[in-house]
Amino acid sequence: MLDVSLTREILRLAVPSLGALLAEPIFLLVDAAIVGHLGTAQLAGVGIASTVLATLVGLSVFLAYGTTAAVARALGAGDLGRGLSAGIAGLYLAAGIGVALIVLGLPLAHPVLAAFGAGPDETAYATTFLRWSLLGLPGMLVVLAATGVLRGLQDTRTPLLVAVAGAVVNVALNLLFVLGLGWGVAGSAIGTALTQTAMGAVLVTVVATSSRPHGTSLRPDLGHIRGAGRAGVPLLLRTLTLRLAIIATAVVAARLGVAALAAHQVVMALFNLLALALDALAIAAQALTGKALGEGDGPRVRALTRTLLWWGVGAGLVLTAIFVAGHGLAGSLFTDDPAVRAAIAAGVLVLAVGQPLAGWVFVLDGVLIGAGDGPYLAWAGLLNLVVYLPAVIAVAVWAPDGPAGLAWLWAAFVVAFLGSRSVTLGLRYRRDTWMVLGAARA
User: Fold this and answer.
1) pTM to 2 decimals?
2) Inter-CA distances, 177 with 46, 169, 188, 190, 274, Å
3) Residue 305 to residue 295: CA distance in whole angstroms
4) Other beta carbons less than 10 A from residue 70's beta carbon
5) Euclidean distance between CA atoms 77 and 374, whole angstroms
6) 274-323 pLDDT per residue, tens
7) Terminal Cα distance for the chain, rounded
């Protein structure tokens, strides 16, 4: 049975989190929509550069996850000053990583983008967009870290408000710079970089204001920053295994023919969209689990997890029903090519069936992140990848081209990858090893 009071707590955090999670896709969609008016080569170039940016930001999500767990546990233990010190260190770490990426990225931008094999015009536009966008990375990563601090404080509304305001400002700046001043793809990148920097500044101000009553120093502490970096390594490895699985899936899709590859891009975009809904529950799981463990309340952690799993699987079932009903129509929204439409329908049907399993996986992943169980998640991620790679290689070798091949590919992703994650996370959940109670995890 669902606990009504726990459900209210979950929704209080999850609903605003979902809105904030939509901010980055909205930024990219706005960039694409405005740049699309400049020409096909410009749009293609921005698409390539956005792939690189999304990878860099995706790998840095540990900045949010790590600070959420640390601050939430300290909040529950009644030692918020210590948690905020860890959060401040995370902000400095984020800014440092962002600056390092600028230093490395500016000279490497063209060689990396040229490796995609696009034409010279597309590569030139991609290089321009990426180089200007890199200047916004410190702000972008600080947004991640500051959002993690606020989630740990059980505040998901402030990141939502900042994200909505940022999306509005981003539209205005991009319209001005690209279409008004005629700066082209550089204008789009500059507008987004300025917006991300401003968002980072606002969130840092909020965190600093929250820290003052607790006497938390805002000065950089190298020891704390190194500690935040060490704590983030396991979560970085966990995220890297996820990205490698997605890359492997795309590589195999490319071997199944042009229609299957085009359809795969659509199905993967839908998967990312569905993941946002389930990720909102995972964020609530991180914040609430960390706080309850800090309070030393093991039974509450178990009750929270059970309620979250109900919501995760239930949300997955709702998504399954929606996408099973509409899988045959999904392709018509993206293409007129019958072969691509058929492949999209096949892939979406398999994706839809896997959503309850995805709900289970996302929730348990969030619970263990909130518990600070990063080392286990890193090792489990490597094991999941070891299980998945033979399955995806088998698809590449034996699956037919076209819709059937794409269906087999997504079946491998759901059964072998999500299935493996459900087993490794479920086995961990059944034990009490991850439930370290008190102010700090050893």
Assistant:
1) 0.87
2) 16, 12, 7, 8, 32
3) 16
4) 29
5) 20
6) 888 888 899 999 999 988 998 888 899 999 999 999 999 999 999 999 88
7) 34
